[in-house]
Amino acid sequence: MSTFKFAAATTALLCLGACGPHPVVGNDGHAKDVPAATPAGAPVSCIPLVQIQESRVRDDWTIDFRVSGTKWYRNTLPNRCYSLGFEKAFSYQTSLSQLCNVDIITVFASGPGGGPRGSCGLGQFQPVTLAK
User: Fold this and answer.
1) Which DSSP string do the residues of 36-70 spell out, in sequence order?
2) pLDDT tens digit string along 53-91?
3) Which residue of 37, 60, 91, 119 has the fewest CB atoms within a 10 Å radius of its CB?
4) How do the domains of the chain map onto residue ranges?
5) Smallest Cα–Cα separation from 61: which of 17, 96, 105?
């Protein structure tokens, strides 16, 4: 007798509080207005999906995730994710109950003719205190 485990795939399009004016992004993909972040603990590989309340795309390299009220995690992507800082919207698909550094995000165009624009890997989730 064999046992099959079923893991439901979770897909989300994240643009929670982050869809607004497009930032000024330099040729290197770094925005000039990314708030400073002070590390507030050791980085982690995953954050629970049910605790993600907001994501803020800062530029082609940086996404801040707010979890459980006021706690923030900064994810600095290991490689530039072209157009992420301009589009400020991404999706992911996972069969786990967590978003992890091994997961892939897909950038979505937010205007007319929108749709997927490319995919990028996530980095570690660094707990941070964001500058005001």
Assistant:
1) PEEE-S--BSEEEGGGEEEEEE-SSSEEEEEETTT
2) 999 999 999 999 999 989 999 999 999 999 999 999 999
3) 119
4) 10-130
5) 105
